[in-house]
From TrEMBL:
GO terms for cellular component: cytoplasm. It comes from the Eukaryota. The keyword Repeat applies. SUPFAM superfamilies: Spectrin repeat. It holds the Pfam family Spectrin. This is Uncharacterized protein. Keywords: Repeat. The keyword Repeat applies.
Length: 472
């Protein structure tokens, strides 16, 4: 028996050693990571390797445990078995430590190459924008004002992308803090990116000055004309009496209103910019400032006068939407009630006790559903009352809608209560029929005993027969 156990141990130990040798072979490969994609692929492959190692642990543990049992039983080759088991266990632990360390190195490489790729992408973006900034003109723009508008949009794009530089810098600083040995690689990348971004900002600023300093007077006139033309179109839209004929059309108009407000924000910035342009011209062409100031004042006053009508139109659209939404909500609730009424007014009260119990559960579920839905009904009615209190022109109609909805709602609740009472009555009746059937069955059974002619052969059997025929 001990010889057989030794053979079994040696067989299992050889299999474990093969597994460990395979693991050591994989761990001996130290691939150099050259890019982000390779780092991601190596991590996925190493995760799969760790999963396989964990699965093979059961086989190795079985060998170690088997060796321990043989030693405890005083096996004749206990020293040899124990030595081999210790060697297997040490190799397994060594492989596990190496695998975990390798995973940490791969994760470090992933972070590093993510940082390097972010640097490269941002650098490419900066170079592309710098090429645009070095172009002396916006060729597709026909007027000084349109060129100025393009230039402002370009400056805004650069400003909005500065967050990318901040994020890359933070990522690099965190890496250097965790891995100081990477500082020689990371710090120059950060410094180079910061320098590139500074150059881009200065190039853009210089371009603006070159393009527009000599044309400030033309620019302010064209900007005033552009804003003035835009305001003419806007006034026509504001004067329109179209506030929508249904919920869908009101929503479309509100979307247009939102677009107008977005445009207003853009134009407001341009109006503010007029002051900066005027200050520059005051120093360069003071003799022309009376005409410029007059034109600028007209634009600024018209722009301010547009704000109140826009707010009023927004209020009218919101009021119209609330009314259409209320009507839609009332119709939706009426449909919901109409779906439940046939269930509440059903004349099926059950033809058996089991059937009645099933119907009672369904009616209780309906009652619960109605209770849970009541806050929605109240919310719809409250919205209607709010419109009435605000003096909406359709207040009489809203009053009728609320009254009709509440009447339907009350009818549904009463129908459910009435059905509950009728089902209770049906339950009592079916319980009576059930009990009566039970009694009839019992009496039929007793009649069979009464019809037996056996009177008993002795006193004991007679007493037993008397017990059977006795009514409980």
């Amino acid at each position: 028996s001990q010889s057989l156990n030794l053979q079994m141990f040696n067989r299992d130990a050889r299999q474990a050693e093969v597994l460990l040798s395979q693991q050591e072979h994989v761990l001996s490969k130290d691939e150099t990571v050259v890019n982000l994609e390779q780092a991601e692929n190596l991590i996925k492959r190493h995760e799969a390797f760790l999963t396989t190692m964990e699965a093979n642990d059961d086989k190795i543990n079985a060998v170690v445990q088997f060796a321990g049992r043989l030693c405890d039983e005083g096996h004749f080759a206990a020293d040899k078995v124990n030595k081999k088991a210790d060697n297997i266990n040490e190799r397994r632990n060594s492989n596990r430590d190496r695998a975990l360390q390798q995973m940490e190195r791969l994760k470090d490489q992933l972070q590093l190459h993510q940082f390097l790729q972010d640097c490269e992408e941002l650098s490419e973006w900066v170079q592309e924008k710098k090429f645009t900034a070095q172009d002396e003109t916006y060729r597709s723009a026909k007027t000084v004002h349109s060129k100025w508008t393009r230039h402002q949009a370009f400056e805004a794009e650069i400003a909005s992308n500065k967050d990318r530089l901040v994020r890359v810098k933070q990522s690099g600083e965190e890496l250097m803090k965790e891995k100081p040995e990477l500082a020689e690689l990371i710090q120059p990348k950060i410094s180079d990116l910061e320098q590139q971004f500074d150059d881009l900002e200065h190039t853009t600023k210089d371009k603006g000055e070159r393009l527009f300093d000599a044309n400030r007077e033309v620019l302010i006139h064209q900007t005033c004309d552009d804003i003035d033309s835009w305001m003419n179109d806007l006034e026509k839209q504001i004067e329109s009496e179209d506030t929508g004929s249904d919920l869908a059309s009101v929503n479309i108009l509100m979307q247009k209103q939102q677009m107008i407000e977005t445009q207003m924000a853009v134009k407001a910035k341009q109006v503010t910019e007029l002051e900066t342009q005027a200050e520059y011209l005051q120093r360069t062409v003071p003799e022309k400032m009376d005409d410029i100031k007059a034109k600028k004042k007209v634009v600024e006053e018209r722009f301010e006068q547009l704000k109140a009508p826009l707010i009023e139109r927004q209020r009218q659209l919101e009021k119209k939407k609330e009314a259409f939404q209320f009507r839609r909500d009332v119709e939706d609730e009426k449909l919901w009630i109409a779906e439940k009424v046939p269930l509440a007014e059903s004349t099926d009260y059950g033809n058996s006790l089991f059937n009645v119990h099933t119907l009672k559960k369904k009616n209780q579920s309906l009652a619960t559903e109605i209770d849970n839905h009541e806050p929605r009904i109240n919310a719809v009615c409250n919205n209607g009352q709010k419109l009435i209190q605000e003096g909406h022109e359709d207040s009489p109609q809203f009053t009728d809608l609320i009254g009709d909805l509440m009447q339907r709602w009350q009818h549904l609740k009463e129908a459910v209560d009435h059905r509950r009472n009728l089902l209770d009555q049906s339950e009592r009746a079916q319980q009576y029929f059930f009990d009566a059937n039970e009694a009839e069955s019992w009496m039929s059974e007793q009649e069979l005993y009464m019809m037996v002619e056996d009177r008993g052969k002795d006193e004991i059997s007679a007493q037993n027969l008397m017990k059977k025929t006795r009514i409980p």
